[in-house]
Amino acid sequence: MMQPVKILRSVLSIQSTLFKYHPLLIEGHSSDTRDPSTVANQITNNLKRSWNKRNITKPIILITQGDPLTERGISAITRIVANNLGIKRCLVCLDGHIDPEHAILADRHDVLYELTYSQLVQILNDTSFDGSPSSNEETLEEAVDNTIERKNARRAALGQDPLADWYKKYALLQEVTKSAFKQISGEVTVAHATDEIMEFSVTSFYEVGLELGFIDAQDMVNYSTDN
User: Fold this and answer.
1) Is there a contact between 73 and 46 (Cβ–Cβ < 8 Å)?
2) What is the DSSP secondary-structure string of 2-41?
3) Cβ atoms of residues 168 and 148 within 8 Å
4) What's this model's pTM, rounded to 2 decimal places?
């Protein structure tokens, strides 16, 4: 029998429950057509090598961000990685006023805990990275806006339409989630499901967190076999 999902309803409960874990996030595409088992096995091996080098000792929990289950793509890949590692999952969903269907469609297989984007925003804004009053959400949003502007200029030069409006909310979900979880746990791993990150994908916004210093290069695990 599957363990029921525990809804974490307060910031205090999120922090007291999840600080004991090492959070793992896997970034990839829902449209990935590769064999998910092959991709997941490569990611699993990469993670084991990385954690051994970094001497990660906390139990791992996989953080997912509302992807509905599909036969291929990132939701299938994350399921297999979790099974390979024998770990459970924590689900982060957009609040209903941002996307009313996001939580409804999310895959909840082996999910122990569930929380919302707005709760992670609160945690991120309660954290000061440089000792000054925190406005981390505004900083991230401005950086995402600037990145979208640059990408749209590039698309215009290529004769392509601007990015869809939904890019911003999912890029923010991605960056807020991993940045907040690093603050909760003090450590995080972000693994990519491919080395061929598409220029206009949501995954490509990972550079925002790195440039702001919310995520460190040592937190990242590349997909290539030589990492």
Assistant:
1) no
2) PPPPEE--SHHHHHHHHTTSEEEEEE--TT--S-HHHHHH
3) yes
4) 0.92
